[in-house]
């Protein structure tokens, strides 16, 4: 687990509802049970400040950091997808973005990764498709130095679900269903403190589940087969996350000195 990714999980899953800020010492305490050492936390914080995700703030518990407005938008959108809150209803139309990409290769790679993360797939060269308009599109394009023309389409035959590798995604969900219980029990048994164990188990559970955001665009249910394993996987994730939440909340409050 990379420290930067773990910090996004901490701020999104635990601090967003607690003012979106915390002293550095508290963040270090939160990440210790999941194996992220203090030097790695501080290095990751510094990088996230330079990238515009965090900003310094003086708190009662000492120097700390809070998420920027840009980070809050990303964390809220990610949280909605992770926990499947406020899922939009599909109106049968597709959203297309005809992208004029930046010339620099690193910027193109970052643009591709960001578009994929928020639910787009490349249908043709520089033509990206999504079942829904994505609120972050304009910001992603601006950050990459790219532009795009968008359109609404409803005449696909067959539907463009082949833009995503659904066979691979099906296998990934099957693997999740086979491994989730073992993942949780492994981390529950690795800590003597019950609340710390619940936090570590839930943290790893959410971290692994969040990886599906890079592959699953959240296709409308009526475009997926009746035996789609993503439904059962989502139910299992929600049940385990809820089961571990009380102990997790107590541990977070303890680390924050609340």
UniProtKB/TrEMBL annotation:
- PANTHER family, A to Z: PHENYLACETIC ACID REGULATOR-RELATED TRANSCRIPTIONAL REPRESSOR (PTHR30319), TRANSCRIPTIONAL REPRESSOR PAAX (PTHR30319:SF1)
Q: Kindly provide the name given to this protein in its UniProt entry.
A: PaaX family transcriptional regulator C-terminal domain-containing protein
Q: Which domain of life is it from?
A: Bacteria
| Record-annotated Transcriptional repressor PaaX-like central Cas2-like domain positions | 89-148
| Record domain Transcriptional repressor PaaX-like C-terminal: where | 164-253
The record's section on InterPro entries has: PaaX-like_central (IPR048846), PaaX-like_N (IPR012906), PaaX_C (IPR013225), PaaX_trns_reg (IPR011965), WH-like_DNA-bd_sf (IPR036388)
- What species does this protein belong to? Nocardioides aquiterrae
Which N-terminal residues, if any, form the signal peptide? none
Domain Transcriptional repressor PaaX-like N-terminal as annotated: residue spans = 3-70
